[in-house]
Task: structure prediction
Amino acid sequence: MSENQRAAGIGASGLVLEEPLLWERGRPGRSGMSPPRPGVPAAALPPELAGSGPDWPDLSEPEVVRHYTRLSSWNFGVDTGLYPLGSCTMKYNPKINEKLAALPGFAGAHPLLPEEAVQGALRLIYELEGFLAEIAGLSAASLQPAAGAHGELCGMLMFSAWHRRRGGGRDKILIPDTAHGTNPASAAMCGFREVKLPLGPDGILEAGPVAELMDGQTAGIMVTNPNTLGLFESNLPAISRLVHERGGLVYADGANLNAIMGRVDLGKMGVDAAHFNLHKSMSTPHGGGGPGAGPVAVGKELAPFLPGPRVALRDGRYVWNRDPPLSIGRLHSFHGQFAVCLRAYAYILSLGPEIRTASGLAVLNANYVREKLRTAFDLPFGRRSLHECVFTDARQKKHGVTTLDLAKRLIDLGYHPPTIYFPLAVSGAMMIEPTETESREDLDAFVAAMLRMADEAEREPEVLHRAPIRSLAGRLDETAAARRPRLTGDMGVGHA
Ligand SMILES: *Cc1c(COP(=O)(O)O)cnc(C)c1O
Result:
């Protein structure tokens, strides 16, 4: 038993599970199966195959099953408890949508099947594009981009193609300094230079700096609305007007759509293109590196440039329009992350206009937490938040307690930590996003844990410095764990 486990008394109310590595548990000759004896004499492997691969441990079937089942119970997710990770929107993923995505007619369909054989799948693509365009207040959409960043790339390629058709020569793009890192990266991949836009004192963009920077060399602007501080960009209509007057285009990063869906018309705010992160807003579990999807919706100007091929409806049949003339071409070997799109389709159909209830509750819950915590934690921006709120460690720092200490202590108190040290523009940020599905009782329990930590920071800061003490592992050297992961039984590698 580790020192941490002993200190915390883990096992007093449950089983103590010692979980060695498979290499430590294995015994030579143990096996999970007994293949029939071969009828031919054994031969040594040829030297080129005999190589020096990993020395796999020998284990029985129950040993392997128990090992992984126990590890899975050490995980924490939305199905375990409140998961306040901001900007990542781990939200409600109705289990029924998993079942729908697994229906054999969809799961078994091959993307190269002829149109007659996949009318249902084509209809789903066609209709979902329509739903997403409608939610954004735009005129068309493509499901091809495989993630948010891929959607941004799609948007920037379309900006570039649109400008080229009118003579080109624009190589800069305006990006606010709270933007997600993928924004400047996507712009750079399309040959644009990032011009940083400063935030106004309220934490949102103002038209003044845009007027100063938006010149004849600038292709447009990328805006996240609501922004990564969880604040609504209320000056966006004026900013869009300015950008359009000077020949530019407006891109909206829609990662935070769950705060505004069904309520805000991005098209009316002057947006020309926007991506959705279906894995953040529409029923695909996010995390663990699983597939997401980043469909892009566009206004009339950019619609001809969407990736192709496109599904069209002709005489009641769905057909592929393989070569739309102005299209930027394919962004995906087939038609996007179909199963992720399918979940989004089911999510939208099951909620219908109630989708605005989901966004309303997400905002209500974030503001509830924000109001309950503002007496104890520093709130750098006073405006009302949307779906998430950002605090800092400024008050706890006076007692030597940092954001990292608070995040680690929260593990002891039974919660996954919020997003920390992001956005970069806020020093010591803690970004809390409760999402729309948490009950008032669960929010109150989380608030109580946060307030308890604020109290501990004043009275016994050493508790926070030592945290976590109740988890199976204590505070890890995260840099070493990332740089020198221990992936085999070799105890010498990355073993602190
Ligand atoms: C997550 C996120 C992205 C990138 O989306 P991926 O799907 O992870 O590629 C871009 N912008 C913001 C604001 C995000 O939160």
Summary: The domain at 96-352 is CATH 3.40.640.10 (Aspartate Aminotransferase; domain 2).
